[in-house]
Amino acid sequence: MVPFVFQYRTNTRIRALNIALIAVSMVSYFFWDINYQLMTIIQTKQLYSQSVLASSNAFIRVFYNVYADPTGGDIALNRARDYVREQMGLIQPSLHQVFIRSIGAQFKVENATHVQHDDQGDEMGTLKLLWDYCQKTEDLVVYIHNKGSLHPSKENDSLRQWITRAALSKECSNMPRKCNVCSWRFSPFPHPHNSGNMWAAKCEYVKKLIDPLLFETRMSQLYPTIVNTWKGWMVGVGRHAAEHWVHSHPSVQPCDVSTSDFVWGYDNLPEDDSFELQTFPRTDYNFKVLEREEEYREHPYAHSLDDRLKEYDFLYNETLPASWYGYEFYFNRSLALHFEYPFSKWLKII
User: Fold this and answer.
1) Which helix (H) or strand (E) holds 5?
2) DSSP 3-state assignment of 148?
3) Average of per-residue pLDDT across 323-340
């Protein structure tokens, strides 16, 4: 009997000890499991945040309009390739993500995402892709194109190189709060634009603009007597509408980086230039823009405040914001005195 009792007690103690060990193990596992799940959740959230950050803020989206003349044979195709190679050489893979919309003859571009191809078209189709993207975000975007692929010239080569460098520059990539469109050179004449049409812009501004595919029609409705004439370049209608589009809203706050004497068009294209970002009008502007006034003196739209305000009203039906660049430019009396004819004749204040 004694051995049996001893054995029973011993077995009971062992069972109790086992139960205690199991309980301790369960509690330990419980807390380990909670800790593991918490760490997993935290790590998952961190990875998710990092992926979201990488997809939305890590890259500057570059919308690239690539044209190759389909009727020009190998010469035109090679020329377009050369220009693309030149411009892609300025892309920083760690900073830029390039989206290509091609027109005409098609060829592969390395380190870029090809999103659309059209046999025919113009820049508005690519600007539409950029505009659509900006409706969903407030990122910084860049627009470039292989300028000169249809009309090669030394002037186009020079202008393309400067405006591409500026659009992709660190200055434009880090534009201050008081600027929402940055380019090599902004000019208010003959209409608000930057020659060559390459720039960086903030999506919070871009989303305010008219749909690019509708903009050319709206401009033609505003200036119906000019649409099919040689004067279209003076107001930004027809094929010149794409160049005017990004600066067409009254809330535009333009800045540029060129310290050269270049104003617009192809005159005074520099061989050298140093970049310094300033908001418009620049302190070193020196009335250079007014020196070309003789070319379009007979055209009132080219330099009329009245017509600038009418255009804003027609396109956007909005009043001028306090940030409008024109307050400092148009109402700067020293600019008006630069003209040979009276202030009131130039500045038709309403």
Assistant:
1) helix 2-56
2) coil
3) 63
**What phi-psi label fits residue 97: left (phi over 0), alpha (psi between -120 and 50 degrees) or beta?**
beta
- DSSP assignment string, 172-213: HHT--TT-SEEES--B-SSSSB-TT--EEEEHHHHTTSPPHH
β partners of residue 145? 65
The tokens describing 95, both together, are: 């900073």
Q: Are 326 and 308 in contact (CB under 8 A)?
A: yes
Query: Against a cut of 0.85, is the pTM above it?
Result: no
| Amino acid residing at 169 | S
Task: Output DSSP code: residue 210.
Answer: P
Q: pLDDT per residue over 264-283, tens digit each?
A: 888 889 999 999 999 998 87
Quote the DSSP letter at residue 187: B
Strands (E), the chain: 60-68, 96-104, 113-118, 140-145, 181-183, 199-202, 254-258, 275-279
Q: Are 95 and 139 in contact (CB under 8 A)?
A: no
